[in-house]
Structures are given as C-alpha cells and as structure tokens.
Amino acid sequence: MKIRCRQCAGYYKVRDGKFGVFAGCSNYPACRSTLKLHELVMAYIQEKGIRIYRWNKICWKCGKETPVYSYYLGYELEELDEYLGSFGMVGLGELPCVDQILEKEIPSIQPRYSNTVKSRYTANTCIHCGALQGRNYVVEDPHEIMDELMFHHDMEKYYDRTIRMEDYSQLIPYLRSIYSAKD
Q: Is 163 exposed, middle or buried, given 0-12, 13-18 or 19+ CB atoms closer than 10 A?
C-alpha cells in the first residue's frame, strides 16, 4: 500500500535526511512534499483503519479456551516500510481511544485498574472466569501467534475486524510519541 502525496501524483516513502527520518514524496526533487512519521501513520490509519486480530488461548486460571484480541500496528505498517515496524508491536493498551472502542464492542476486553502503578489499562479477560490473560493484556507476549506475527507474516487467519473512528485527532498525541524518529 502507498499513501498518495498531498501535492502531486506521487506517494510517500520513508527517507532518512539530515534532520532525521521522515516521509518524502517519491517525485522528489520535483515535489518537496513531506510528512512526519506520525502523520504518515495517521494517513495510513485513516485510509485503512486499524485491523483487529483474534485467537484462542487456554486460560491460566480455569483451563478453558478463551478468545483474546489485539491490534498490531507495527505489523500493519510494514506494508508501507519495514522501518515503521521497527517501532515495535503497538497493540492493545497502547492507543486508549482504540481500546475504548474495543471495550464497547467486545465484552471480554475490559478496563482494569492497577493499584501498583496507579493507572487504568485495557485487558483481555477470560470469557468463562474473568481472569486476566497473559501479562496484563496479552500484547507484548502473544506466544500463540508469534511465528505468524513476526516471522511468517501470516496473520490473515486471525483477522477479526477493522476499527474505524469518527474522530482520528485523539490518536495524534499517541502516534507522535510512538513514531518519533529513533536516534
């Protein structure tokens, strides 16, 4: 997938310049249109939405099979450029406005509160006993699908739905903090 340039018929490519990594028009030097990385990610999300994946795991507490869900933005963004995937697997618990949509749509995704760190987070819970699944919310540790996610790029069998938002502006501060160019 390519994000069309806002000023010409070209598309944005991730480039490394003297001021860091950015997205520049493929028709450079004829077109000098640029985007910051978070703006490129925002354009991608607005065009494609955020894909949600679902897979089953055995609950650690009751031993029954339960579905878990997450998004993996880094995985999706590799379609634009593999550099964007190097920012990590941005998933459930990273984008609060997306997490809130999932909390409303999927009963087993629930808000929780940690007294230890004094903050709210979004978690996958067992549909049978309500126990939290994995390390807090099964984002950093998706053992069941790690091969498909990281090595085989074969996530289609886990695709569940695409989230679209009416107001994408809520994402901007999170995308800006995540997709600031690495040193």
A: middle
| Chain CA centroid to CA 51, Å | 8
Q: How would you class 146 by CB atoms within 10 Å of its CB: exposed for 0-12, middle for 13-18, buried for 19 or more?
A: exposed
CA atoms within 13 A on the CB side of 48: 17
- For residue 173, whether the previous peptide bond is cis, meaning omega lies within 30 degrees of 0, is no
In tens, the pLDDT along 4-18 reads 999 999 999 999 988
pLDDT tens sequence across 74-130: 888 988 888 887 777 788 888 999 999 999 999 999 998 888 888 888 999 999 999
User: pLDDT, tens digit, for every residue of 126-183?
Assistant: 999 999 986 554 444 555 676 666 666 778 888 999 999 989 999 999 999 998 865 4
d(CA 161, CA 153): 18
Which residues does 105 contact at the CB level (< 8 Å), separation at least 6?
A: 161
**Element at 177 (helix H, strand E):** helix 172-178
Hey, which residues does 70 pair with through a beta bridge?
Answer: 53
Contact 52, 160 (CB under 8 A): yes
Q: What's the one-letter identity of residue 147?
A: D
